Amino acid sequence: DSITGEVVELLAPYLDMDDYNLESAKRICGNVAGLCSWTEAMVDFFSINKEVLPLKANLALQEVRLVVAQAELANAQAQLDAKQQELDAVQALYDTAMREKQELQDGAQACRNKMATATALIDGLGGEKEYRNLLLALWKAEMSQQRIPYSHDVNVIGMLVDNATVGEWNLQGLPNDDLSIQNGIVVTKASRYPLLIDPQGQGKIWIKNREVDNSLQPGRALAASTGEMQHMPRGLPAWRKALMIFSTWGWTV
Questions:
Q1: 3-state SS assignment for residue 242
Q2: Beta strands in 5-144 (DSSP E)
Q3: Hey, which residues does 217 pair with through a beta bridge?
Q4: Of 230, 229, 212, 211, which Cα lies nearest the Cα of 220?
């Protein structure tokens, strides 16, 4: 690598001689032949190396640039990873918020459905209460027409059930309003299976609590639309005292 252009210029006249070659030198002296071959090789190396040196310098420069670029890439990748972590955290918060939003929407819709059901139930109970009051008035009118003595201030609830029983029913989950108590009287004193339109499930809870010691048998759901309700069992085994069957329309028998 230490050979210079000046040395090559000094060797040029000798290299141009016709007898300055390996074959001619061998005829004179073997050692001289080796020296001759070496000088030719060094001149050729200088010519090639003169073209290679800029390439080497450029390679070294590019290697430095590569190291710098790799460092910048590593730094950029680290920043990207950090931003991705932040994005993942924000995405998780977003997903959680959307899930909570959906749960709130579902809860609100369920609440609206319950309110609609409760409103329909209240409207229905109002009509049932009016019907029962009208029925009592018709009974009184019929008894008056037939001249049958009766108490004008008769209280159907007080006549058919005592306060202790009503209190026990309330503890078992039956609401304390007159209509619910009348329903309880129908359930406990009717000679046939009572049919409960019970969208709130209060009657079902009360019956389960009331019959917990009476071998309550929970039955399967019946589809009223297929006529299964017409094939209700007419009796129970001697060792069972209570049976509850649920319909697909929310009725309890």
A1: strand
A2: none
A3: 243
A4: 229
